[in-house]
Q: What sequence folds into this?
């Protein structure tokens, strides 16, 4: 079984070699007074189709189309190669014309979101693991509701047991909104724990007003606050891990449509034979 | 204390299916049902369990993950005691992502449809702004043929095959741009021309210096345009790159895409220049070295040029150095020579003559040609030969005539005599036509003769200026009874040659009956006649040039040989004892006291008819008694000038059986026109054209045109005199472009022009003009070397791109003036 480093080395080398071959072919065609946009354009189309086929592969797991992990590797490295192809095709300049500008923006959006996706898929898991309990994204709402019910029950009970509304009023003022829905997403994405620290500080500030039982209840509540904070962290980062695809995949379809129109227009108005 | 939430124990952990489109709507409340919605998003939950009948009892089957069996148990009817109210299912994350993707697709398609069928599709689909020179092109269809078809046409054009280059968009480029003979070919040149140039071109300096990429590219790809009928304009000129884009910029390597011989750069592999710029001989035969070393030092002070710029000046663009015109550059030394000043031989060109014939033999053969000058020894001129050859009826006779010696027909057979007779009559008819209709009568004949329509302006140059008096005088001298003789000949009557002895040479007596001629001073011993045939006029004062045997003739012709008392003023006054000639060779003129100086008079002869002063026995000015003066005054006659000298300013004159033309100076239109026409006629093999050109085009012929103006034979057989030095052709591009102007300021050292144009003193320049092949050339100058240019033209200095010095499109590349009809001008005026 190859190590990650070996796999990266192998795939990187193959990508570089492919890039060199493509660059040489383009350069030779350029020297032959041909319009290299046709070659680079069709290579881009082929790369695009192969990249987009990964989504299809994931929807057809029953077909013997190699492992999804292999497809993922192909998708990643071919995506990087596509960046080079794209700039070979467009040149290092701003686009002219409305259609070409739109297509350029779509492709750049795809490239940026794709690179973002590679980065986030490498950075997020470690943080998710290090922060606390790993929760399945689909279960986060269930556990959040569960925690909210438990804290509400504790707050209600505290009135009866303690004969004081301290915890209850704190609950209604600060804890209920906190448990109502995911909170502090931006702080979690930035790696900041300031909001939950503040909340916990406020919670601890109630100790002087409470008896021992009240402090026990406060501990219970605090554990659930920590759990809820972890849920929010999980929600933020897993949401990002899933959410970037909300940009990447629609951009893919839009780019495919505009690219098809671009190909037709190019061939319709090409003044020089490819 | 850490609150753990998640459990993966099988009976406590529900199975998540993120690939499903819908999830239970109670997930957010924390109590999703285990059943979940169906694939269409409909809630399927009804109860917490599906009770199972166990014997007579119903058992609760709720899953342990949901809390296990309930304490209430199912109802007696078997329904679950815990019904689940239906929820509103929500889409899963994946499903929502799919919806987003579909929305993006629909929006993209909608946007494209709006753009395609909108009012400004061109603007939406244009790939960018045009370059500055093309900004005024408003419609896409001006450059793109397929635009006219609309969106459906575009789709069709995209899938249809590309037309040949010339029929495609490149053809629309040519609606505005003129690009040489074959615009779609490399360098806009025909294939054959390119092939020839490729063979002749110098090779790249070393195969080792050839760029690998270029070689490999040449191996892998066919030359552009081979399969498409030519190279499209867009192969090199990429538009829609913004206003500042340079349409003509092209990479050095790409320039060589079609070349079989490739190299890396100007200083690295570029072929040597060969004989550039001296690829053909100069059009003007001017030996720089000989002039610098010999002629200029010998020239009169102030006439020789002191520097190159005295003869050479930049053209209006500052690009090429052209030779100044004759008046500025050459006239100081050569103008007189052209006019025939101080010429040893005849300065006139015989055009129309009465050819010399052996009249005695003709009489014996009873050939009837009528009156003919006895003493003419003129040869048939090329002009006459050319005209006669055009007449099919005369061509046979002319061919036979040219093989004879017309002056000796003793051994001639009857056919020869007949040929001579026909030529004689043709000559007479020619003279008659001239007399009757003037030079314009010959215009159609010349056109037929030379195979070229003669426009009025050309006819003016060819024959204009020939005066009626000159022609009439010639006719009266040569054929005094011309009209009668032609009438008799036309009637089929015999017209015998009158006379038969030398004493009465002309038939002036007979001609006087018919009133044909008035030149008759023949047989006047003491006549002061001016007839040309003063044969036997001992004391005639004839002015004809053929005064042979006139002892006391006062002839003014150049052939005053043996004229003892001639008062000739010709240059050949050899042996004129009493000549009063004013010619250059007044050797031994005993009694000459000519005061005519350089004039062409013949004054000074003893008994000459020109009683101009200075003559001892004549009616001169000096030393005469009053009675003698009165007597000579009675006999005074006008001088008979030497016609050649009289016409030294140029023009027509009649002299001894010939009508001659003397060139008036440089650029003489007569000579130029005749040489052009004769040279052109040689291509079609017109008889007479060759001899005509040979006569006029000899370097020693009057005018000496071809002494300096080189003669080229073109591929079609035309012989062309190069009247002008090399001049740039407006709107015409050559392969190599060099502009002198910007280089002037760089030539500040002592060598100046010689930095590039160094003399080659060993070159045999003169031999370049031994033939008519312009490529035969030994230049006075050393060829310019690549190293000379390479001193400055490197990448970091003056630049060394291919297009710095080379044009791609060769030939006529200037656009023609826009076609504007009068109607358009009028309508524009009406709009003002």
A:
């Amino acid at each position: 079984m190859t190590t990650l480093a070996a796999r990266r080395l192998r795939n990187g080398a193959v990508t570089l070699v492919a890039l060199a071959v493509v660059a040489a072919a383009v350069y030779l065609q350029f020297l032959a007074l041909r319009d290299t946009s046709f070659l680079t354009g069709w290579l881009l189309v082929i790369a695009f189709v192969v990249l987009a086929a990964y989504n299809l592969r994931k929807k057809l797991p029953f077909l013997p189309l190699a492992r999804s992990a292999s497809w993922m590797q192909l998708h990643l490295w071919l995506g990087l190669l596509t960046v080079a192809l794209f700039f070979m095709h467009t040149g290092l300049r701003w686009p002219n014309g409305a259609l070409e500008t739109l297509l350029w923006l779509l492709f750049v959006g795809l490239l940026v979101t794709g690179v973002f996706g590679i980065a986030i898929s490498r950075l997020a898991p470690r943080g998710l693991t290090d922060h606390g309990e790993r929760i399945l994204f689909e279960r986060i709402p269930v556990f959040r509701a569960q925690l909210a019910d438990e804290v509400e029950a504790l707050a209600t009970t505290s009135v009866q047991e303690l004969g004081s509304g301290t915890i209850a009023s704190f609950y209604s003022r600060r804890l209920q909104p906190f448990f109502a829905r995911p909170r502090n997403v931006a702080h979690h994405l930035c790696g900041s724990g300031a909001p939950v620290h503040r909340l916990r500080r406020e919670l601890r500030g109630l100790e002087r007003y409470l008896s021992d039982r009240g402090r026990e209840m406060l501990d219970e509540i605090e554990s659930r606050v920590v759990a809820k904070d972890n849920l929010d962290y999980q929600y933020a980062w897993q949401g990002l891990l899933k959410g970037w695809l909300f940009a990447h995949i629609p951009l893919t379809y839009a780019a495919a449509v505009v690219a098809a129109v671009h190909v037709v227009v190019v061939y319709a108005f090409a003044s020089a034979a490819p | 204390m850490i609150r753990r939430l998640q459990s993966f124990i099988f009976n406590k952990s529900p199975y998540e299916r993120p690939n499903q489109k819908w999830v239970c709507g109670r997930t957010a409340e924390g109590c999703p049902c285990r059943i979940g919605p169906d694939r269409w998003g409909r809630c399927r939950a009804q109860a917490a369990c599906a009770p199972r009948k166990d014997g007579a009892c119903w058992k609760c089957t709720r899953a342990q993950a949901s809390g296990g069996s309930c304490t209430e148990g199912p109802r007696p009817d078997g329904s679950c005691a815990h019904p689940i109210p239906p929820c509103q299912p929500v889409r899963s994350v994946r499903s929502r992502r799919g919806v987003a993707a579909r929305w993006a697709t629909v929006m993209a398609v909608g946007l494209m449809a709006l753009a395609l069928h909108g009012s400004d599709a061109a603007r939406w689909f244009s790939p960018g702004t045009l370059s500055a020179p093309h900004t005024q092109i408003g419609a896409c269809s001006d450059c793109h043929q397929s635009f006219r078809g609309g969106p459906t046409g575009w789709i069709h054009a995209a899938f249809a095959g590309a037309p040949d280059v010339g029929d495609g968009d490149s053809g629309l480029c040519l609606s505005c741009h003129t690009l040489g003979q074959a615009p779609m070919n490399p360098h806009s040149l025909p294939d054959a021309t390119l092939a020839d140039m490729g063979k002749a071109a110098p090779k790249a300096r070393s195969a080792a210096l050839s760029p690998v990429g270029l070689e490999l590219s040449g191996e892998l790809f066919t030359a552009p345009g081979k399969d498409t009928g030519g190279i499209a304009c867009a192969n090199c000129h990429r538009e829609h790159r913004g206003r500042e884009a340079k349409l003509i910029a092209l990479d050095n390597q790409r320039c060589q895409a079609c070349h079989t011989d490739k190299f890396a750069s100007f200083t690295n592999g570029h072929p040597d220049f060969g004989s550039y710029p001296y690829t053909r001989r100069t059009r003007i035969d001017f030996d720089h070295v000989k002039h610098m070393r010999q002629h200029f030092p010998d020239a009169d002070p102030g006439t020789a040029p002191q520097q190159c710029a005295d003869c050479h000046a930049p053209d209006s663009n500052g690009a090429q150095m052209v030779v100044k015109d004759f008046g500025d550059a050459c006239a100081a030394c050569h103008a007189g020579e052209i006019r025939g000043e101080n010429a040893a031989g005849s300065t006139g060109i015989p055009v129309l003559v009465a050819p010399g014939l052996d009249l005695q033999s003709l009489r014996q053969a009873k050939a009837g040609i009528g009156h003919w000058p006895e003493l003419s020894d003129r040869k048939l001129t090329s002009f006459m030969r050319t005209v006669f050859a055009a007449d099919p009826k005369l061509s046979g006779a002319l061919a036979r005539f040219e093989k004879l010696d017309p002056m000796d027909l003793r051994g001639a057979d009857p056919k020869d005599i007949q040929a001579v007779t026909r030529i004689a009559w043709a000559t007479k008819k020619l003279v008659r036509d001239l007399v009757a209709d003037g030079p314009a009568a010959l215009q159609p004949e010349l056109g037929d003769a030379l195979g070229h329509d003669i426009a009025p302006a050309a006819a003016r140059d060819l024959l204009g200026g020939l005066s009626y008096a000159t022609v009439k005088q010639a006719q009266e001298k040569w054929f005094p009874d011309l009209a009668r003789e032609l009438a008799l000949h036309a009637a089929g009557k015999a017209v015998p040659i009158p006379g038969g002895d030398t004493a009465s040479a002309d038939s002036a007596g007979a001609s006087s009956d018919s009133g044909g001629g008035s030149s008759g001073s023949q047989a006047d011993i003491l006549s002061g006649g001016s007839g040309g045939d003063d044969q036997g006029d001992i004391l005639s004062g004839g002015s004809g040039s053929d005064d042979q045997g006139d002892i006391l003739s006062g002839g003014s012709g150049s052939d005053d040989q043996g004229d003892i008392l001639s008062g000739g003023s010709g240059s050949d006054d050899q042996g004129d004892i009493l000549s009063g000639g004013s010619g250059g060779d007044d050797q031994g003129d005993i009694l000459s006291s000519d005061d005519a100086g350089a004039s062409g008079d013949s004054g000074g002869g003893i008994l000459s008819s020109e009683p101009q002063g200075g003559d001892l026995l004549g009616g001169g000015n000096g030393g005469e008694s009053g009675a003698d003066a009165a007597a000579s005054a009675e006999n005074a006659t006008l001088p008979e000038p030497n016609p050649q000298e009289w016409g030294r300013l140029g023009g027509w004159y009649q002299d001894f059986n010939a009508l001659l033309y003397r060139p008036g100076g440089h650029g003489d239109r007569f000579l130029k026109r005749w040489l052009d026409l004769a040279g052109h006629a040689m291509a079609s093999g017109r008889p007479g054209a060759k001899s005509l050109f040979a006569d006029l085009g000899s370097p020693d012929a009057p005018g000496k045109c071809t002494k300096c103006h080189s003669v080229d034979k073109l591929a079609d057989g035309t012989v062309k005199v190069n009247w002008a030095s090399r001049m740039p052709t407006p709107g015409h591009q050559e392969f190599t472009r060099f502009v002198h102007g910007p280089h002037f300021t760089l030539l500040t050292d002592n060598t100046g022009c010689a930095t590039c144009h160094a003399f080659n003193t060993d070159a045999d320049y003169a031999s370049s003009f031994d033939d008519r092949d312009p490529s035969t050339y030994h230049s006075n100058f050393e060829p310019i070397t690549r190293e000379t240019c390479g001193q400055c033209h490197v990448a970091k200095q003056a630049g060394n791109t291919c297009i710095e010095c080379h044009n791609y499109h060769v030939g006529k590349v200037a656009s023609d003036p826009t076609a504007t009809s009068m109607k358009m001008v009028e309508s524009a005026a009406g709009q003002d």
